[in-house]
Amino acid sequence: MLSKTTDRLAKIWLWMSALAIILILLSVLGYIFINGIGIMSVSFLLDMPKNNWREGGILPAILGSLIVVFVALAFAAPVGVGTAVYLTEFRKEGLVTRIIRISSDALNAVPSIVFGLFGLSLFVFYLKDYTGGPSLLSAGLTLGFMILPTIIRTSEVAMRGVPYAERMESFGLGASKLQTIKNIVLPGAVPGIATGLILSIGRAVGETAPIIFMVALNPTVPKSLFGSGNTLTTQLYYLAMEGISMKVAFGTALTLMLVILTLNAITRVFKKRLSRNLRRG
Amino acid sequence: MKAGLVFLALGLVLFSGCVSKGNGADLVIAGSTTVQPIVARASEVYSEEHPEVSIGVEGGGSGTGIRMVSEGSVAIGASSRDLSADEKSKNPDLFTTTIALDCIAIVVNPSNNLSNASLTLNQIRDIFSGKITNYKDLGGPDTRIVVVEREDGSGTRSMFESMVMNNTDVSDAALQKPASGAIRFTVSGNENAIGYVGIGYLDGSITPIAINGILPSEESVRAKSYPLSRDLYLITRGQPTGLAREFIDYLLSEKGQKIVKEEGFIDIK
Amino acid sequence: MKEQFTWEKIVGAVLMLFSVTALVILLLIMLFILDGGLPLFNKVSVFDFLLGDKWMPAKGLFGASQFIIAALLVTFGAVLISVPLGISCAIFLAEIAPPWAKSIVRPAIDLMAGIPSIIYGVFALIVIVNLVRVAFNVASGETILAASIILAIMILPIIISISQDSIESVPKLYKEGSYALGATDWQTIRRVLVPAAGPGIIAGIILAMGRAIGETMAVVLVIGNVEKMPSGLLSPGETLTSAILLEMGEAVVKSTQYNALFCLGLVPFILVLIMSILSSRLITKSKGRFA
Fold first, then answer.
1. Exposure winner among A58, A214, B249, C234, fewest CB in 10 A?
2. What are the CA-CA distances from residue C126 to residues A54, C142, C230 (Å)?
3. What is the dotted CATH code of the domain comprising A42-280?
4. A111 and C214: CB-CB below 8 Å?
């Protein structure tokens, strides 16, 4: 009898815990929405900041985020997918693959501020003449290093998801390894790889610490990769930390949140399609 | 896959078009967060009148600004304090131009009981050093005083310490904030907090405390009856030349000084 | 045919180069962080750094113990708050939740994992700091507790995901055996499933701890950044990560302060590496258990 009551109480507790999670999520999202929606408008997204960020829009930050993410992907996508291709198609499981995977996992665990210190010393100082110092290029490359493990991992899973049978059929028809990869494996893995890339974009666009030392809050449109700029995240940090304008800060936060939500939704659509494809086999 | 490669190539081509070495801005001013709103607003208006010029404004504190202009990484360093003897001897060519008058206001939350009080410099020192820790020792309620100060490189902090603290350290229990705006934000959100900011940061959300009966204002600063007055500077290596000179001249002109007043600071007459 | 093989070799070689990149980057990180940080120990001993409690760059004092203690307190607090809630939610998802509930809660957790840390920071700055001040009647809400709370929220998804995986990996036999003996759902969960999933759950907690120690943005906005050694969860403090963030701007490059800040970064770096190794070992062990 006692155990039945405990059972019921326990279940209530478990339901409550799930409810608590939902409530926490809703309060964070809701808070940003409620405070940010007031300043949100098309002009907010397209205007330049005015009056020391107290008025106007956040266009430089949006452009900065786009550029930095683009650079990060330009580096990490080829290298990451290439690594996954190598791990699945070119190498048998062994010491080499284990080392590569361990490095990738370890890289994934490095704290974001340590990436910031690394990016500072490598790109901003050591390679100053090639990157322009504290530039969007340096920021993009640092983020690229950071998202590399995610792309490797998701691409590998995607490629392994292509049934071995399909590869065998292709070889059986006389195709070479490269042809098989190009025509069978990669196309089959594209949804999974794409999901991984979008996941990485979400991560890159949301990071602050890795690039905080190489951005500058300029109320100007970034002119080149070698110049400095700022991103939605770093702008949000400065606005909030230095108390410049909470109104604009919330607008920035809402913009950032909308980007994340959109990427999240796209990922879910892709995942659904992926599982549908897998079921068809 | 092919589409992806084409897209990548396009992107690279687009970017190589606008690839050019060098910083995004033609003129960069870095340093004091107190001076920052003045310089930011002025650079905005200046750029409207001279659209071919882009000016970048960074914070970082007076110490950072002075260091960056000494190193040559920026053309103008903004400072809310005087150069130290050390800085002058290491870089004898640093040239200081005063662009505004300011003072350090000791601020509390409007609902703080000290907001109508007058304090002496000794009392302020005791509060910030942690000798007085509770408002009840000043005739107020039994609540702990939350001291808020600026970070290490701040010009406002160094002026505050030299004008008020007299070689006593500020309490190590003080909350550190990296900018005047952050002190304003904290003090306006916490009834128990006390901090210091430049006069331009006084909006309705925080209240200045009178020192020896005198409140900080344009009159009391000019008359020097308010004890914590100071100048705001733009620092260059040698006399300003080129774009830096034009910008500083602009700030010293009537239009520029109007901006100083609009930001809540005091123009130099 | 011969041409095909050469192409294959070339592509293979290029891809191998790509694959080595992750390792190279990892080594470069170690190299540059050590290069940036080790020079500190020419001026200050390792003991003074780890055990000293006065951090005054202007006076050449670089004692980091208050940062280490603050980081440990914040992490400890975060784990204390998030583990009970996280494991409960994992159990809910693994055992109790009907499909409609799963389809709401799981995406919610994924979304939580994707929210940028700076947004959590801004939320904490305004909501949590004031909550702590009012609820605990302290003079200022900028405390270690506030940082622990927001970190707990941030690491919940990790704990829930890994715990859920671990519980679901327990062979059905264990569950069926327990029911056969007449146990209720809760008894089964509590006495059989969770203990069986133990190593996996602990691995998740360790991973979450690693994330908490390395987090910067959410912590720096709410912890008060005070130079004094924290005396408890309700004091303000400054963690290793927030100290790096705040002081790097004014540190002269290659100065002792610069070196010291890099050393502050070494601590979470090493800790997190150890924790991820521990955690992977535990996960492999737990998977192997049921093989």
1. B249
2. 19, 10, 22
3. 1.10.3720.10
4. yes
